[in-house]
Amino acid sequence: MATEKQIETMEWAGTSPLPARKSPFSRFMKKLIRQRLAFVSGIGIIGLIIIAIIGPSIIPYKITTVDYQYVLQGPSARHWLGTDPYGRDLFSRIIAGTRISLSVGFFSVLAGAAAGTFLGLLAGFYGKWVDSIIMRICDILFAFPGMILAIGIVAILGPGIMNVVIAVSIFNIPSFARIVRSSTLSARAALFVEAERSIGAKNRRLIWRHIFPETISTIIVYFTMRIGTAILAAASLSFLGLGAQPPSPEWGAMLSSGRDYLDTSPFVTLFPGLAIFFTVLVFNLFGDGLRDVLDPKIKD
Amino acid sequence: MGQPLLEVSHLQTTFFDGKQALNAVDDVSFTIHEGETVGLVGESGCGKSVTSLSIMRLLSSGGKIMNGSIHFNGQNLLALSEKEMRNIRGNEIAMVFQEPMTSLNPVYKIGKQIDEAIIYHNKVTKKEARQRTIETLKNVGIPRAEEIVREYPFQLSGGMRQRVMIAMAMVCKPKLLIADEPTTALDVTIQAQILDLMRELNKKNGTAILLITHDLGVVAEMCERVIVMYCGKVVEETDVQSLFAHPHHPYTQGLLASTPKLGEHAERLGSIKGNVPSLNHLPKGCRFAPRCPKAMAICREQVPALEALDDGGLCRCFLYQAKKAR
Amino acid sequence: MPEPLVQVKNLKKYYPAQSGILGLKKVAVKAVDGISFTLNRGETFGLVGESGCGKSTTGRMLMHLTEPTDGQIIFEGKDLASLKGEELRSERRHFQMIFQDPYASLSPRMSVRAIIEEPLIIHGVKDKSERRERVDRMMELVGLNSDQADRYSYEFSGGQRQRIGIARALVLNPDLIIADEPVSALDVSIQSQIVNLLQDLQDQLGLTYLFIAHDLSVIEHISNRIAVMYLGRIMELAGKKSLYAEPLHPYTQALISAIPIPDPQIKREKIVLKGDIPSPANPPAGCPFHTRCPKAMDICRTVRPETIEKQPGHFVACHLYN
Predict the structure, then answer these.
(1) B38, B46, B187, B280: which to substitute to probe chain C, counting the most C Cβ within 10 Å?
(2) Which pLDDT tens digit goes with each residue over C79-91?
(3) Residue of A nearest to C161 (CA)
(4) Among A63, A233, B149, C159, whose Cα sits 20 to 30 Å from the Cα of A85?
């Protein structure tokens, strides 16, 4: 008798075939391609990453080669983007600086995002005093303008590119904590999380297996957008002499070294400036597009 | 039976989703006479709400009436300009929705919203309008109507809001009221109040009602005639007595068997196997064939026509057409 | 002789709330206000009432999704209401829940297999092939094709998703299933499939159901005994036949008469109640139903009626019978 019933129930549910399956990645790519600007920016980012990886081995001049015969030369066939006050090839230096800027941007945001996400998850999930303590600390950090905070941190730790990474990552922590906390709050209230709780799942499992995945898309979007800002912040610190030290081909430091020749040789500041501008732009545009693609309200 | 009030014929409403064209309503025809209460029954996605929105010409972007005509009082609604249509909406045809909170503007007081509806369609002063508002609110059984007009929608309970919606719909004494699941979001005791109210308005003002619902109990209590829809098509249309006594279409039979009846102690409920197909995966032939316990070979090949039965009803099923041919 | 599985004694849930100017006055919203009932092994106990009556809160308290303010939930000699931590977690496997919304209650990021497997992992079934086998068996049992186990839940229709939810609830072989409006989000033709499935599973597995719903026709069909709730209290509790044949409480009478019957031949005298359900933040004194009761007397406005056993197994809380 029991088996008969089983067969009957099976037939009920089995009659309508499921639609053909598309992998989540192919759906993501399809939507991303539709976001033209973001797609082009994405290609730009891939280009920057390739330059960062292979750049230093293909550049025409060594970045430390000083040539006093060609000081502050304008762009030419010999030096495509001209030379700096020490006669070093600007093109080579900008290409070589890509790796520094990208890795400073990436690692500082990565560290900030990791710490911020962890704190945001804790604050959002446990609420009560945990939430109060974490969010009040974030409020304090927020009360400082980001740059001033970073300058302060570098002033304490001393100048250097490593300390710039630390400073930028610290000022990224509260913003990540805040956005992760708010997505945690909504995910924690989701019915399927409640269902999971009713099964008897432990808090750690709820957080990492069910709530964290719900916040990932927000984190990725924000991560991409913050990289641009972080690169800019690192360049600014270096420009102020707090970050990368000469002769490092860091873009901000290059801007700084060209500053005295702005009226006679504007290209010394123009080209590193453009590099910063272009890099920040592609990351921000890509982040914007990514937000639209990952927004669950926009369907394919 | 009165004069025909609303005549929908061969209505086809299509939604465009990228490259796909989905016929949410496919060749639907029916007539509502003056003072009549007609039920439009079906499950989610059967096209019952799209039919009502097509009548009101309130389709969201992406939806388009591709074919057919809708005559109201002899006038083809599809040929009217948007301005002429606005004069009909709310004035001659009014609509009540499932969730009253979404159809009331949360930032205006109740009184103001109803006053505006009156002033829009009639040449009256504000004072006269307010008087009529209060009168209508009292007619729909709202206590302390004079105070309610100065309150905001969120201050009212769900049942009260639905009464306000009905008051708003009735304030211009429309000839036709389209009620789309008007009691689905309400509790049973409140549902009884609202149904009572609608029945009374129908008797007193002679307003015809097109009642869209999935609840066969509500249909049995309210309607004189019933139209059953499945996957965008009308599958059966008949008077309420014969629908419940002798349902013809296997889908109607299945629906009735699936509904638990009070006081009837059946061991098991009847059921319809499978799931409602989505509009982009419609089966070939009769749309109900894959779930139909009586499906024949022809049902999987050809689409049956909606044909008259001996008892005056209409049914879209080869079972009866085969019998007649013999 | 029915064997009691769970005894609920004087269960209460008060939520703190503020009222008055500036929210200075502290009041308690009495979502559930002292209810007691017993669930017998193998029966379906229906909990019915309108919105805000506390039926869902009761189910959630049994599941420990909401902590009770007061009262006991006695299961196998232990009071679950007072358990905490690891002990509570291991007791949890005996009670499982089926939710109303088959869309929101399943994670969109997990495959069907992962969803049904989850309780097994949580409760320490380490053997991967055993888990696999149990998930497959469970899917077939609820009428799903186990070949589709690697699909994501959003690829399924509402009815199929509810079957997934049922499979997840059953995979740990629980004693009690708390079904909170399990069919009210589904289409009529799908509702009956799920109701039938729940009945078949009960026959095969000897399950006990606490079936929470607002639809009295569905409740009548599936339940053995029924409790009618209003504003956090049980107004009447009886076996199905006696409740529907001779409802004692005026509220039950009105509720039953308000159900539209899908048969135009049957014309009944309806009791249409006046007014709205009062807010549980500010319930009427005395009997909570007196504001809408057609038979209210003076005593109803001041004195809360005791629950009495009018007939064997038929309990009612109403002054008419005192």
Answers:
(1) B187
(2) 988 888 888 888 8
(3) A13
(4) A233
Q: Answer whether B275 sits within 8 Å of A15, measured CB to CB.
A: yes
pLDDT digits (tens, 9 = 90+) for B287-297: 999 999 999 99
Whole-angstrom distance, CA of residue B114 vs CA of residue B171: 8
C151/chain A closest Cα distance in angstroms: 8
Q: Do B291 and A19 touch (CB under 8 A)?
A: no
Share of chain C above pLDDT 70, in %: 97
Dihedral of CA atoms A19, B269, C216, C239 in degrees, nearest 10, equals -140
Considering only CB atoms, C191 lies closest to which of B195, B244, B258, namely B258
Contact C189 B193 (CB under 8 A): no
Contact status of C157 with chain A (Cβ, < 8 Å)? yes
> Taking CB atoms and an 8 Å limit, are C168 and A19 in contact across chains?
no
Residue A4's pLDDT band, with cuts at 50, 70 and 90, is very low
User: Which chains would you list as touching C if contact means 3+ CB atom pairs under 8 Å?
Assistant: A, B
Assess C148–A contact: CB distance below 8 Å, yes or no.
yes
Classify strands C208-213 and C44-48 as parallel, antiparallel or unpaired. Answer: parallel
Query: Distance between CA atoms of C115 and A193, rounded to whole angstroms?
Result: 11
Contact between A184 and A124 (Cβ < 8 Å): yes
The CA radius of gyration of chain A, in Å to the nearest whole number, is 25
C185 CA: distance to closest CA in chain A (Å): 14
- Tell me if B290 and A15 make a contact (CB, 8 A cut-off): yes
- A16 has a pLDDT exceeding 50: no
Contact A18 C200 (CB under 8 A): no
Q: Is the CB of C199 inside 8 Å of chain B's CB atoms?
A: yes
pLDDT at A299: 44
Helix, strand, or coil here: C259?
A: coil
Q: Is C144 on the interface with A (CB under 8 A)?
A: yes
Q: How is C76-139 classified by DSSP, letter by letter?
A: TTEEGGG--HHHHHHHGGGEEEE-S-TTTTS-TTSBHHHHHHHHHHHTT---HHHHHHHHHHHH
Q: Assess contact for B188 and C255: CB atoms under 8 A.
A: yes
Please answer whether residues C85 and A166 qualify as being in contact, where contact means their C-beta atoms are separated by less than 8 angstroms: no
Tokens of A171: 């000022």
Could you report the predicted ipTM of this complex, rounded to two decimals? 0.84
Domains of chain A: residue spans and CATH: 80-294 (1.10.3720.10)
Residue C20: pLDDT above 80? no
Best residue of C187, C241, C251 to probe chain B, by most B CBs closer than 10 Å: C187
Q: Cβ contact (<8 Å) for C260 and B254?
A: no
Hey, where are the domains in chain C? 4-321
pLDDT (average), residues A227-236? 91
Judging contacts by C-beta atoms under 8 Å, the chain A residues touching residue C189 are none
**Per-residue model confidence as pLDDT tens digits over C106-144:** 988 889 999 999 999 998 888 999 999 999 999 999 999
The position carrying tokens 């019978």 is C321
Which domains are seen in chain B, by residue range? 4-92+172-238 (3.40.50.300)
The 10 Å Cβ neighbour count of residue B151 is 15
Q: Environment class of residue B20 by beta-carbon count within 10 Å: exposed (0-12), middle (13-18) or buried (19+)? A: exposed
Judged by a CB distance cut-off of 8 A, whether residue C90 touches chain A is yes
More confident residue, B78 or A3: B78
Q: What is the pLDDT of residues C31-60, one digit of tens each?
A: 899 999 999 999 999 999 988 888 999 999
CATH 3.60.20.10 applies to domain C4-321: no
Residues of A in contact with B281 (CB under 8 A): 16-17, 19
Residue B190 has φ and ψ, to the nearest 5°, of -75, -35
Q: Which of C249, C250, C142, C149 is nearest to C202 (CA)?
A: C142
* C24: pLDDT strictly greater than 70: no
